[in-house]
C-alpha cells in the first residue's frame, strides 16, 4: 500500500480543525519544532506533522503515517520519550504523542486527550 501523504495530511487537518476539543493547531512546517533522536547512532531531528493544543491544555504532537516502518517506529518511540521528559520538567505544560495510521480516525484518537468529543456521525453526508 502506498499512502498519499499530502491527501492524508489534508484529511487529518480537516478533522483536527473541526474537532470541538481542539483549541488551536498548526501544521509543523518550517516552524523549527523538532524532536531529537538517534538514527544509526547519529543525531537526527524528527519533524512531526501537526502540533495541537486541546481543551485540557495538553500539547499533542501528531504524526500521520500510512504504515509503520522501522524508521517511523524509532521516531515514534523517541517522540514518546521526549513528550514524557518535557512533561516531567513541569515547565512547558503537558505533552503527548499521537501516531495515526488512518487519518479518518484522528478525531476519535484525539478524543482521548480532550473533554469535548469529536463524533464522526456529525460529518456523514445526507
What number of domains? Answer: 1
- Cα Rg: 15 Å
Structural class: alpha+beta
Strand order of the largest sheet: 1-4-5-6
Stretches with pLDDT under 50, minimum 5 residues:
none
Shape: globular
Report the average pLDDT across residues: 91
Give the second-level CATH assignment, the architecture. 3-Layer(aba) Sandwich
Main beta-sheet strand count, sense and barrel state: 4 strands, mixed
Q: How many β-strand runs?
A: 6
User: What is the H-and-E element order?
Assistant: HEEEEEHEH
Helix content: 25-40%
CATH class designation: Alpha Beta
Number of helices: 3
CATH fold-level topology: Trna Endonuclease, Chain: A, domain 1
Strand content: 25-35%
The N- to C-terminal Cα distance equals: 30 Å
Question: Keywords, please?
Answer:
4-stranded mixed sheet; Trna Endonuclease, Chain: A, domain 1; 3 helices; 126 residues
